[in-house]
Amino acid sequence: MRDLFEGIESLFVDILFAPLDFLRDLELDSWFLANLLNFIFVIVGFAAFLYWMKQLKTYNDNNEENRDPKAHSFLG
């Protein structure tokens, strides 16, 4: 049983976390490059937010939503 857990440890520490170790070492040389992945996630999230707001405006401009107070069961 101990070998199983040591195998799982080896998988995560030696293989799956290797890219994170690389980023940790890279931070000492370049903070911007080490955080590039975070910046990419922020940009993708911001683009998705802008797309979502554009779609909400489109539906709002077309009056496709029933705005009657009794239109949704959870409102009353």
UniProtKB/TrEMBL annotation:
The entry's keywords: Glycosyltransferase, Membrane, Transferase, Transmembrane, Transmembrane helix
Segments passing through the bilayer: 31-52
Q: Which GO terms describe its molecular function?
A: glycosyltransferase activity
Q: What InterPro entries has UniProt attached to this entry?
A: DUF6341
Q: Name one Pfam family in it.
A: DUF6341
Q: What is this protein called?
A: Uracil phosphoribosyltransferase
Q: Which organism is it from?
A: Autumnicola musiva
